[in-house]
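Need residues for this backbone.
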């Protein structure tokens, strides 16, 4: 009996030393290693186009120093910084009393001249009849015709002068040439403005564009009319559709970058000129790549990893390198192929070799 005891003891020690990973999942749970609940998604292989992301700055396509077309005394000033105005809305008014007096005087002269014109026309008709009867001389007829023509010219001149005064009175109300926001006040009540004097600086919030400096290596990949996605550092939940409106084919001699403009709409007043933006483009031919949901990628000190579920329902950590983002998915290179299950929920609390129990979760395909 003493000779068999060591053999039995050794067998017990060997059994106790077996690794947990070699035991079935049920035995692990019985031993106290409970499976961690997770959600997983299968990796996919999809066609992908190269994505380019560049920083830019929001600018307004319409920025104007609104000026007066007539001179005058500022009688009313409504334009205040930060105020939003509609197209045609009054910004300021100049005093019109002097112009109104000039119009009244011209209108009185016009009425007199129209009466004189009627009289000269009657005189011309009489003289023509007498001339035909050879009673009036050629000189008399010429004088009557000249007098009638002179009064016609006088009436037309006064009518034009009144129209000019009316236009000046109308222009004494300086209106917004387009809808926008007043970004600076250029005058005040009581000031005298000469022709061309500044009234306000007006900025349109409807015609916004993003200015981007494009490195020369991307110049041949982008074309006017191409689509873009624009996001903003200051407005995390806002992404707008954009269109490449212009690419200026002259590089900055020092930076070797080409100016590009991307038009955007639909901001709804949530962004302003000068904001920082991130502009994303797709370029080049498509290629097939393995993608996983962005939620599956875990960033660690050593790099990026994805946790894959093995056939024994345990976790394996796979180092990867990420590439283009495709909606909710991202391109990965590494030991991941389409169809393999990657953990997308609960991957922040697991470790290699850990048993897991999960359910699938679907992401919209790119």
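Answer:
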């Amino acid at each position: 009996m003493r000779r068999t005891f060591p053999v039995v003891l050794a067998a017990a020690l060997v059994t106790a030393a077996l690794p947990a990973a070699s035991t079935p999942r049920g035995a692990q749970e019985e031993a106290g290693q409970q499976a961690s609940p997770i959600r997983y998604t299968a990796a996919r292989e999809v066609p992908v186009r190269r994505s380019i992301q560049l920083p830019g700055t929001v600018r307004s396509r319409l920025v104007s120093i609104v000026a007066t077309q007539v001179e005058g005394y500022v009688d009313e000033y409504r334009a205040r910084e930060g105020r939003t105005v509609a197209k045609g809305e009054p910004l300021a008014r100049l005093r019109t009393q002097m112009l109104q007096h000039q119009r009244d005087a011209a209108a009185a002269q016009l009425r007199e001249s129209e009466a004189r014109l009627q009289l000269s026309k009657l005189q011309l008709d009489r003289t023509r009849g007498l001339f035909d009867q050879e009673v009036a001389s050629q000189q008399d007829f010429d004088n009557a015709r000249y007098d009638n023509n002179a009064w016609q010219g006088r009436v037309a001149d006064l009518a034009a002068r009144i129209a000019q005064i009316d236009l000046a009175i109308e222009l004494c109300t300086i209106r917004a040439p387009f809808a926008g926001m007043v970004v600076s006040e250029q005058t005040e009540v009581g000031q005298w403005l000469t022709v061309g004097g500044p009234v306000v600086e007006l900025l349109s919030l409807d015609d916004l564009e993003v200015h981007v400096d494009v490195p020369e290596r991307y110049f041949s990949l982008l074309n006017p009319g191409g689509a873009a996605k624009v996001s903003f550092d200051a407005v995390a939940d806002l992404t707008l559709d954009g269109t490449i409106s212009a690419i200026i084919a002259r590089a900055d001699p020092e930076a070797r970058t080409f100016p590009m403009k991307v038009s955007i709409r639909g901001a709804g007043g949530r962004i302003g000129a000068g904001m920082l933006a991130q502009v994303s483009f797709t370029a080049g031919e498509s290629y097939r790549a393995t993608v996983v949901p962005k939620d599956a990628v875990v960033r660690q000190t050593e790099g990026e990893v994805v946790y894959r579920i093995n056939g024994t329902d345990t976790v394996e950590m796979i180092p990867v390198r990420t590439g283009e983002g495709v909606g909710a998915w991202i391109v990965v290179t590494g030991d991941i192929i389409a169809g393999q299950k990657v953990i997308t929920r609960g991957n922040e609390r697991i470790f290699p070799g850990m048993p897991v129990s999960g359910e699938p979760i679907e992401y919209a395909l790119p």
